[in-house]
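Hey, I'm writing a tutorial for new members on how sequence and structure tokens pair up, and I'd like a real worked example in the thread rather than a made-up one. If someone can provide the structure for the chain below, I'll link this post from the tutorial.
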Amino acid sequence: MKMSNSFNLALHVKDENVVFMDTDQLYAIIEELDGVQNKEQLESLCEQFCKLVEIPYYLFGVIEQESLYAPVIHTFTNYPAPWLEKYFQQNKQRVDPVVSYIMTQQAPIRWDSLVQREEFQAPQQQELMALASQYGLCNGFTVPIKSASGDFVLLSMAIGDVENQCEKLNAAIPFAHTLATHLLECYLTMKIKNQGSEEVSLTKRETDCLFWASEGKTAWEISKIINVSERTVLFHLNNCTKKLAASNRQHAVALAIKKGLLKPNL
């Protein structure tokens, strides 16, 4: 992928210590995301963003919930390798206040503000943030996103113990928030290309039956709503279960919602 020269645009300096980028620079990166083909190219663009906002570290992560028991975590990052190794080997995500935060919240937050909240005062959480600072991740912010399929997504950026760190982080948050949504779209596009054609399709009747099953209706009740026999409803629900590789009807409903096959009746 050919990188444009747009990243060489002059930065707008509003005071002697804090560097601000503008929307033209942001959208130059976003345009490049349309041509990303692999992880290395995506990470390169994130590095370009880091340079523009003068915040050295980033992590873009996706927590896929194909299984709630064993979710899969995908990361794109330039965090120090020793920190990442320690973090995942010791399952630090289980006590990470950032991870806890993104499970329930949508607003971007600086880490120094996060650890002041009462719900994140547990000793293990405080110790984790103190340990991160030893690897150069002294402060930062996280932008949480929820994908259409229910996956948890975040873009975090981190900075060392430098002057005006909060001002630098604040200046970058609005741009990072926009970038994060486009990173997610880029990630999903790459995922589809890498996995090939695995899309599940349901017929209208199958969708109708599964929709009403998601509303708690029995097969008999569904048959009365869509004016078919109960046996026909059971046939369609069984087909849905097979197509979605689900273990039962309830599992099929959950998978269909996650895959975007069932939508609100607006």
